[in-house]
């Protein structure tokens, strides 16, 4: 549990993109961030349920939580790679100083 919070402290060193605003980020970042937010909410929901919980009495919750937990950490651990290759818009002159 602690690693899920501590990894946030390393974000400034993990993000290799020259732009920091989401407005100028590319499609890779926006797609991965959307999946990350969805997985964050599903993990929060599953955290309140018993380990034997099943979505619609069909999909077991434990494997879903394990998969989404892996995605949570891979989002940050692969960030140096995909933030470097993502396309981005140049910042306007009014923003740079």
Let me know the average pLDDT: 83
What is the beta-strand fraction? under 5%
Q: How many DSSP E strands?
A: 2
Q: Helical proportion?
A: 55-70%
Secondary-structure class: mainly alpha
- Spatial order of strands in the largest sheet: 1-2
Whole-number radius of gyration? 17 Å
Give the termini distance in whole angstroms: 40 Å
Account of the 3D structure:
Helix 3 (27-47) runs antiparallel to helix 4. The protein has 97 residues and is mainly α. It has a domain at 26-88. The chain has a two-stranded antiparallel sheet with strand order 1-2. It has helices at 2-9, 11-14, 27-47, 61-77, 79-85; strands at 54-55, 59-60. The chain is built from 5 helices and 2 strands.
Question: What is this entry, summarized?
Answer:
The chain is mostly helical. Helix content is 59%, strand content 4%. Helix 3 (27-47) runs antiparallel to helix 4.
Protein traits:
mainly alpha, 4% strand, 97 residues, 59% helix, 5 helices, two-stranded antiparallel ribbon
Topology record:
Elements: H1 2-9, H2 11-14, H3 27-47, E1 54-55, E2 59-60, H4 61-77, H5 79-85
Antiparallel strand pairs: 1-2
């Amino acid at each position: 549990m602690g690693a899920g919070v501590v990894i946030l402290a390393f974000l400034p060193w993990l993000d290799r993109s020259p732009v920091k605003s989401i407005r100028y980020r590319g499609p890779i970042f926006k797609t991965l961030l959307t999946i990350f937010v969805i997985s964050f909410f599903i993990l929060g929901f599953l955290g309140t349920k018993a380990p034997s919980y099943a979505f619609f009495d069909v999909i077991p919750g434990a494997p879903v939580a394990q998969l989404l937990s892996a995605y949570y950490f891979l989002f940050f651990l692969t960030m140096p790679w995909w933030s470097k290759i993502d396309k981005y818009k140049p910042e306007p002159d009014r923003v740079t100083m």
